[in-house]
């Protein structure tokens, strides 16, 4: 490795890290456009930033049989609806006996979410020739917006009664048209009148003629809220401050910065130049983490999310520590610096991959099967682990190589020490220098092979 | 470094496994005893927070704009009133305020308070007795402003409303009230004047009452007369019951997801290592989780939904820690140096090899999470500290179990198979002896 090119590469990585840090924390204005720093673009949860709330009340005309279980059912549907729209951190609680309180963090357009919940759609599928109602919203298990042959549609999956009725109606009326009518606030809209081409018996129905995916999403939400066991109307809505208090966010930021600084100081004291490498990798990791948290649409950072990030920082540092301890072991037993670093990386890889894969398994399971804030936590954790793998396995490896190339004859800078046995051996064998040279020559070769293998 | 000294001493961790198993067993036993005691006395073995139990809310509506300073003083005042509420015998109800949020802005600004019902008090008692009491206490104290009275001499008194500025009509109202009081109590007023400050915008915040004749009755009643009963023409909307934020469905779902994650991790470890390693790793994991629960039970720390996140965090961390040790065991098992050694020796050597790493990693992770706890305490945002504490406990438990527990269990499992033939031999010998004797 040439010294000059290593210095150039090191400076490039250094500059990139600094640019990353600046972009993470500073917001710029370019004429009319504003570049938002990664840090300020991250969406924050109810506990750290607050958001908007709405209280819905059951319509007075509703009958009150089984009220408790119906309210619970409505609450679950509302929760699922908010989660499917990406508000994983939203909460729904029952207030009094006939009200539901919804809190949604950090939204751009509060009116939008609350309107849809407040305007449930009643859905009907009607045969045009006989006027017979084939399906209603009650037969719908779920409604979602999706694309069918490139056209935005609402895909419905039907319950067993609905499936049977739909199969019967479609098989008996091939060639006829069937109208899909939705009623919102008493206004009837004929969404589309598709022609029945074949019998549909799989319990899936599609509403086409939506125009745009937004319109499809809107209708899917309205159909979902049309299925609520209790009809709700909006009582009040407004903004709300963070649950943890105004100071929680500032407190978290200071804790994060101080924690990171202390960890870097610890690593540098313990591993010297290798600690510097780990610190650069850690800063890059922090930049990338903030960037991903800012651009991923589903992430809303909450206190549990911060725990996920701390865990992944811990694992990023752990990977570095494992690698360095291995490098120190290899050097102690007589390998050259470069060979030790290659062998160290090779031996550490297995452990790092295994430990990270198990955590990734946990994160993926929680992401798929978890609900609400568990999903938010899983996303933060998953992104964190993947980035920590990337920085520790790739960035650290390159950086160690460059640093050793710059300072090839100063193992003490890297806190690398030969074992006493080796020193004695070397002293006694100083009369026969060839053998030492053989190991020195062989080792890089072994290292190169190791490098290729990984 | 001291760690390197440690490395040179004789390592017999696995042999001393009984000691390592007794320590967590004692902690868990203490926790169970605490839970039984608290379960019998208060009916709550664990201190569950509002996220799991639900509670009550009261909405304190204000008609002034909330600034950061007035909001802070309002909140602390409201908290004091609710938490300091006593019954007619003067016993504190022990109501705990769980959160206070500012809701809305401008004319509709309000403080939304959530609080937990005290131990063993039924919903009926809350609805009929305590919630109205909270409402009236708030009405009385929050919306009433009592000025400070300063008598410069027997004839002159300054009535200071501090931060509250009087509008003209309120001043006239108070002036006539003072005159009425004087007439009733036999005192004579010479003048009631506004005290204006240099800052014109600040308005009238105090007034001076000058008397030509005073009476004790006037002196005693003045404070009540000049108090204003409608501080910000606010209103406390009576407390209402509120359900748990974490519904039982959500909790069951979370537990199922966590269980599935554990099973899949077990499968992966069994596949990459051995079944014995997988089982030992899961035992260590359960140990860590039990220790966290024990901590919450022993110190009666409030358990909220963030505790679920803390549990999952430790789940990931503990497995990570254990795998590093098992990776070394896997490597050492294959190594020529350990060809004929027992699992106990291999486990000891592997713990020794990874000890520096275990300590360094635990320290760095501990630094980051401890900062959250310290900052939470420094900024008086104690919910942050409460969140960080179980994670710190879990971290320590995870480090402990990866060094002292899971390798020992693995070694026990492995060596059991080797020991069995020995035991058989003993039995055989015994049998032979007995038959020989016969």
Question: Could you please describe the fold and organization of this structure?
Answer:
The complex is a heterodimer of chains A (454) and B (438). Chain A is of the alpha+beta class. Chain A folds into two domains: 234 residues, Multidrug efflux transporter AcrB transmembrane fold, CATH 1.20.1640.10; 190 residues, Gyrase A, domain 2 (2-Layer Sandwich), CATH 3.30.1360.200. Chain A contains 13 helices and 13 strands. In chain A, the strands form four sheets. In chain A, strands 4-5-3-13 form a four-stranded antiparallel beta sheet, with helices on one face. Chain A is elongated, with a radius of gyration of 31 Å. Chain B has three domains: 218 residues, Multidrug efflux transporter AcrB transmembrane fold (Up-down Bundle), CATH 1.20.1640; 97 residues, Alpha-Beta Plaits (2-Layer Sandwich); 80 residues, 2-Layer Sandwich (Alpha-Beta Plaits), CATH 3.30.70. Chain B has twelve helices and eight strands. In chain B, strands 2-3-1-8 form a four-stranded antiparallel beta sheet, covered by helices on one side. In chain B, strands 4-5-7-6 form a four-stranded antiparallel beta sheet, with helices on one face. In chain B, strand 2 and strand 3 form a beta hairpin. Chain B is elongated and about 110 Å long. The model of chain B has no long low-confidence stretch (mean pLDDT 80). The interface between A and B is large, with 76 and 78 residues.
Short note summarizing the structure:
The complex is a heterodimer of chains A (454) and B (438). Helices cover 56% and strands 18% of the residues of chain A.
């Amino acid at each position: 490795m040439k010294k000059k090119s290593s210095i150039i590469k090191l400076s490039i990585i250094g500059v990139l890290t600094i640019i990353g840090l600046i972009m993470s924390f500073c917001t710029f204005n370019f004429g009319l456009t504003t570049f938002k720093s990664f840090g300020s673009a991250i969406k924050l949860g109810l506990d750290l930033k607050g958001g908007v709330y709405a209280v819905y009340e059951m319509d007075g005309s509703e009958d009150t049989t089984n009220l408790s279980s119906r309210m619970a059912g409505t609450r679950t549907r509302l929760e699922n609806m908010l989660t499917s729209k990406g508000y994983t951190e939203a909460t729904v609680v029952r207030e009094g006996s006939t009200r539901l309180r919804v809190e949604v963090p950090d939204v751009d357009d509060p009116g939008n979410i609350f309107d849809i919940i407040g305007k449930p759609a009643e859905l009907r599928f009607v045969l045009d020739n006989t006027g017979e109602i084939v399906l209603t919203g009650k037969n719908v298990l779920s409604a979602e917006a999706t694309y069918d042959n490139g056209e935005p549609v609402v895909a419905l999956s039907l319950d067993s009664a609905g499936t049977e009725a739909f199969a019967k109606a479609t098989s008996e009326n091939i060639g006829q048209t069937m109208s899909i009518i939705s009623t919102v606030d008493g206004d009837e809209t004929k969404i589309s009148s598709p022609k029945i081409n074949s019998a549909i018996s799989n319990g899936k129905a599609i509403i086409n003629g939506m125009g745009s995916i937004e319109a499809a999403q809107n209708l899917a939400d309205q159909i979902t809220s049309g299925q609520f066991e209790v009809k709700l109307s909006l009582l009040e809505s407004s903004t709300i401050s963070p649950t943890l208090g105004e100071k929680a966010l500032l407190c978290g930021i200071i804790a994060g910065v101080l924690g990171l600084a202390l960890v870097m100081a610890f690593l540098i004291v313990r591993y010297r130049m290798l600690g510097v490498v780990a610190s650069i990798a850690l800063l890059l990791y922090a930049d990338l983490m903030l960037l991903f948290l800012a651009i991923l649409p589903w992430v809303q950072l909450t206190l549990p999310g911060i725990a996920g990030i701390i865990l992944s920082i811990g694992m990023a540092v752990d990977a570095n520590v494992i690698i360095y301890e291995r490098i120190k072991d290899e050097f102690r037993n007589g390998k050259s610096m470069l060979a030790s670093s290659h062998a160290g990386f090779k031996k550490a890889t297995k452990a790092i991959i295994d430990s990270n894969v198990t955590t990734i398994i946990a994160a993926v399971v929680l992401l798929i099967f978890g609900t609400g804030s568990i999903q938010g936590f899983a996303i933060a954790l998953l992104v964190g682990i993947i980035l920590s793998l990337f920085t520790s396995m790739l960035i650290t490896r390159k950086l160690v190589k460059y640093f050793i190339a710059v300072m090839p004859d100063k193992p003490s800078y890297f806190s690398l020490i030969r074992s006493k046995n080796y020193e004695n051996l070397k002293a006694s064998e100083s009369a026969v220098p060839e053998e030492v040279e053989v190991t020195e020559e062989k080792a890089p070769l072994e290292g190169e092979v190791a490098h290729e293998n990984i | 470094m001291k760690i390197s000294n440690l490395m040179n001493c004789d390592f017999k961790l696995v042999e001393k496994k009984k000691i390592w198993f007794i320590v967590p067993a004692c902690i868990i036993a203490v926790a169970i005893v605490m839970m039984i005691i608290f379960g019998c006395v208060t009916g709550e073995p664990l201190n569950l927070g509002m996220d799991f139990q639900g509670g009550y809310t009261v909405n304190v509506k204000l008609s002034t704009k909330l600034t950061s300073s007035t909001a802070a003083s309002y909140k602390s005042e409201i908290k004091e009133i609710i938490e300091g509420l006593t019954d007619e015998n003067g016993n504190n109800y022990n109501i705990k305020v769980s959160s206070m949020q500012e809701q809305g802005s401008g004319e509709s600004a309000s403080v939304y308070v959530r609080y937990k019902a005290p131990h063993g008090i039924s919903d009926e008692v809350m609805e009929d007795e305590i919630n109205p009491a909270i409402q009236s206490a708030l009405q009385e104290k929050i919306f009433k402003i009592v000025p400070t009275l300063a008598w410069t001499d027997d004839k002159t008194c300054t009535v200071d409303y501090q931060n509250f500025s009087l509008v003209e009509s309120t001043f006239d109202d108070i002036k006539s009230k003072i005159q009425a009081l004087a007439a009733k109590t036999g005192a004579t007023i010479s003048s009631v004047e506004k005290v204006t400050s240099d800052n014109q915008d600040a308005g009238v915040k105090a007034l001076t009452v000058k008397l030509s004749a005073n009476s004790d009755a006037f002196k005693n009643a003045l404070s009540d007369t000049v108090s204003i009963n409608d501080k910000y023409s606010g209103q406390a909307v009576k407390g209402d019951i509120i359900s748990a934020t974490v519904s039982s469905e959500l909790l069951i779902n979370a537990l199922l997801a966590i269980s599935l994650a554990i099973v899949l991790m077990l499968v992966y470890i069994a596949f990459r290592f051995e079944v014995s390693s997988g089982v030992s790793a899961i035992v260590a994991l359960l140990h860590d989780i039990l220790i966290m629960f024990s901590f919450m039970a022993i110190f009666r720390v409030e358990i909220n939904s963030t505790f679920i996140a803390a549990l999952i965090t430790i789940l990931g961390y503990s497995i990570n820690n254990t795998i590093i040790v098992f990776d070394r065991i896997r490597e050492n098992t294959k190594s020529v140096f350990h060809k004929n050694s027992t699992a106990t020796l291999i486990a000891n050597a592997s713990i020794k090899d990874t000890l520096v790493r275990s300590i360094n990693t635990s320290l760095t992770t501990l630094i980051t999470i401890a900062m959250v706890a310290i900052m939470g305490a420094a900024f008086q945002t104690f919910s942050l500290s409460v969140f960080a504490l179980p994670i710190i406990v879990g971290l320590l438990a995870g480090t402990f179990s990866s060094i002292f527990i899971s390798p020992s269990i693995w070694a026990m499992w492995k060596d059991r198979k080797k020991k069995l033939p020995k035991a058989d031999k003993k039995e055989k010998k015994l049998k032979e002896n007995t038959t020989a004797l016969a």
